[in-house]
Design brief:
Elements lengths: L10 H5 L3 H11 L8 E2 L2 H7 L2 E6 L9 H9 L8 E5 L3 H11 L4 E7 L4 H9 L3 E5 L6 H12 L2 E2 L6 H21 L5 E5 L4 H13 L4 E7 L4 H8 L25 H8 L2 E5 L1 H14 L6 H11 L9 E6 L6 H10 L4
Parallel strand pairs: 2-10, 3-4, 3-6, 4-5, 7-8, 7-10, 8-9
Antiparallel strand pairs: 1-2
Length: about 350
């Protein structure tokens, strides 16, 4: 059995994460998270002509799966650590901010200045200090390293951290257990992908239970760097001069720790447009009664637009977050659902 606290923060360390690592993380974070449901709609299934189960991580505390990885990282820290630094577009920020409150630690969070106001407000509400930066001209990694040294703090990265990957893997662990109880053997799992932490951890756990399940990433238009990286075998960069409403997953390139894991487990990917994402948000609200943010809707958007592995009749898609502001939600509802 391997414990994420004992693994090196390297690509090789990430490749050593196994089912036992994720089960240990699940035990560690259980008091602090909510086991989210697998939802389905008969009308959606009829529309698709196949069965779709949606893992509703938008219902997680803080509104995102990010709480899982953040909590595993925070509760893996030595007792001598008193300060944590993190950088995030919003969901990891809130996850870390909430997680440190359970251990009585201090958090400084670096966030893009164009982050939706609801995410900044949510982060501050947990008592974290927020430092903003320009995501197009400044490096959050450099700022994070500088603040970590200044405060003698532990830096918890949003995806390139074995503790975080293992924590996110508890999503896949729950999916596998829930699907088994339902008597479902998933043909495919579709999951959003920014830096790749969620899909990496989820893939490890899911393939331990269902080794034949095809796993695809779903990404926003212009930010399909993981899909293209899988195709070339090398880390490719996103078109960072382009804009996307999917702020939670617009990363410049796959993670150095996550990509080796994803190259091992993923067999393809889907790319969705802003309009398709907006229509998906409206569809999920109409048929499953859940509110999902743009980045959290891309996996379901892939399914609704027919971007799935050939022959996949039982599909699981992860709705990864629900931190959407009022104006964006109104924009989605104005777009109208797929049906």
């Amino acid at each position: 059995m391997t414990n994420s606290t004992s693994l090196p923060q390297t690509a090789n360390g990430a490749l050593q994460i196994d089912l036992a690592t994720i089960e240990t993380a699940a035990d560690r974070i259980r008091p602090h998270i909510f086991k989210t449901p697998l939802l389905e709609s008969p009308r959606l299934n009829d529309f698709l002509g196949r069965r779709l189960l949606v893992k509703a991580e938008a219902l997680q505390h803080t509104g995102s799966f990010k709480l899982r990885g953040a909590t595993n990282a925070v509760w893996s820290l030595d007792d001598g650590v008193r300060h944590v630094v993190a950088f995030s577009s919003g969901n990891h920020a809130q996850g870390v901010a909430r997680a440190v409150t359970t251990r009585g630690l201090k958090a400084t969070i670096i966030m893009p200045e164009d982050t939706p106001a609801t995410k900044i407000e949510g982060t501050k509400a947990y008592g974290a200090e927020v430092v903003t930066y320009d995501r197009y001209t400044e490096s959050r990694e450099e700022i994070g390293e500088a603040l970590s040294q200044k405060y003698n703090a532990n830096l918890i990265k949003p995806y390139d951290d074995v503790r975080v990957i293992a924590g996110q893997g508890t999503v896949g662990l729950e999916i596998a257990r829930q699907a088994s109880v339902m008597g479902v053997v998933p043909d495919a799992l579709i999951c959003c992908c920014g830096g790749g932490g969620l899909i990496a951890g989820t893939s490890i756990a899911l393939h331990a239970h269902f080794p034949e399940t095809k796993i695809w990433c779903a990404e926003p238009e212009f930010y399909d760097d993981t899909k293209r990286s899988l195709e070339t075998g090398n880390i490719e960069r996103a078109q960072t001069d382009k804009t996307s409403i999917c702020d939670a997953i617009v990363t410049p390139e796959p993670g150095q720790l996550t990509f080796p894991v994803n190259r091992k487990h993923l067999s393809g990917g889907a790319v969705v447009s802003d309009q398709q994402v907006l229509k998906t948000i409206a569809t999920l609200f109409k048929h499953l009664k859940i509110i999902v943010e743009p980045g959290g809707a891309v996996a379901v958007a892939a399914v609704l637009t027919g971007q799935t592995p050939t022959g996949a009749d039982n599909i699981i898609a992860v709705a990864s977050g629900g931190n959407i502001d009022r104006n964006m939600f109104k924009r989605a509802l104005d777009e109208e659902p797929f049906f």
